[in-house]
Amino acid sequence: MAEESNTGAVKVLLKTSMGEVTVQLYQDMPIT
User: What count of other Cβ atoms lies within 10 Å of the Cβ of residue 14?
Assistant: First the structure.
């Protein structure tokens, strides 16, 4: 269930800051 919660938070963060959040997301799980 933790994974689902993380996905929701990530989506909200992405919508909040498409710049700072993007960098953090990439560092957490590199999507090359």
Answer: 14
User: Each residue of 1-32: pLDDT tens digit?
Assistant: 455 555 666 666 666 655 665 666 666 666 55
- The Cα–Cα gap between 15 and 19 comes to 10
Q: What is the pLDDT of residue 1?
A: 45
The candidate with the shortest Cα–Cα distance to 23, out of 14, 6, 15, 11, is: 14
Task: Please compute Rg for the chain using Cα positions.
Answer: 9
Residue written as tokens 């799980």?
29
